[in-house]
Amino acid sequence: MAETKTTVTAATAKASSHQPKKSSNLFAALAVPICLVIGFLFYFFVLGNPANFVGNNPESHPVDSGIGKWFGTVYKGGLIVPILISVLLVCLTFVIERFLYLSKAKGKFSGSELVRKVQYHLANRNIDAALAECDKQKGSVGNVLKAGLKKYKEMVTNTELDTEQKILTIKNEIEETTALELPMMEKNLVFLSTIASVATLLGLFGTVLGMIRAFAAMSSGGAPDSAQLAGGISEALINTALGIGTSAVAIIMYNYFTTNIDSITYAIDESGFTLTQSFAANHK
Fold it and tell me: HEC states along 63-76?
């Protein structure tokens, strides 16, 4: 009987888990092209603004001072630059999105503190007070604990199952709820891990194009064209800087988010252990 109930719950959880993925794909489907459009518009209309160049000519050198000097210099990095800017915008978009979600997932107070409070209330056999603490926490640990506590409360009055079956039922409920919470915390991190590699490769590609341009200037007949030579080297270095900088942001934030997810996961595991041990001790 217990196994049949668990199977139905798992099937329901599996069906429910598809819904968040749809919203995640929708966000990604909108965010990526929008960032691409913004990146190219920024490159052509902001960095490529004629006011950033001598004689108001984008084919000329950047102005000697002010913000226009930096904008003009970056513009000279070539057509790989808007792609790198777009990748940086995608990176920042998902960093902000994950930061907001994980801040919410952490709850109003730490998961470890919630586990201690729930443990105290369960020791006093006050399940309703423990449920109230989960509502106050409003995080992923609180969601998992609340689901486990509801099953815990149900098992207290259950007369059809023995103690081991009741504990197993509580444990299954916690695992199923955790299976719904973890994908939501980890979604979109694949974009950051991909950008960490792709940004470096794009920067290297732009660097190679710049060096080809520089060597082409040196190999032309007669004296090397110093302007083209300097332009090629500048293009190479600009792409290198953008690629490495974007990759560094992605790596740092990816590691930051995975560390936060690990701490939440640990608190969830601790909450599951607390519930099963409490039931075994108080409801033999």
Answer: CCCCHHHHHHHHHC
**Structural domain boundaries of the chain?**
2-282
As to burial, measured by CB atoms within 10 angstroms (0-12 exposed, 13-18 middle, 19+ buried), residue 36 is: middle
Q: How far is CA 96 from CA 15, 30, 107, in A?
A: 28, 15, 17
Nearest to 258 by CA among 187, 195, 174: 187
Q: Tokens 């888990």 label which residue? A: 17
Neighbours of 261 (CB within 10 A): 18
Are 171 and 151 in contact by the 8 Å Cβ rule? The answer is: no
pLDDT tens digits, one per residue of 145-189: 999 999 988 888 888 888 889 889 999 999 999 988 888 898 899
Sequential DSSP letters for 253-271 = HHHHHHHHHHHHHHHHHHH
Dihedral of CA atoms 1, 161, 151, 20 in degrees, nearest 10, equals -20
pLDDT digits (tens, 9 = 90+) for 191-215: 999 999 999 999 999 999 888 887 7
Rounded-to-integer distance, Cα 110 and Cα 127, Å: 20
Residue whose tokens read 């940086």: 88
Alpha helices in the chain (DSSP H): 2-16, 18-41, 67-75, 80-106, 111-123, 127-137, 140-156, 163-186, 189-219, 226-282
First-residue to last-residue Cα distance in the chain:
20
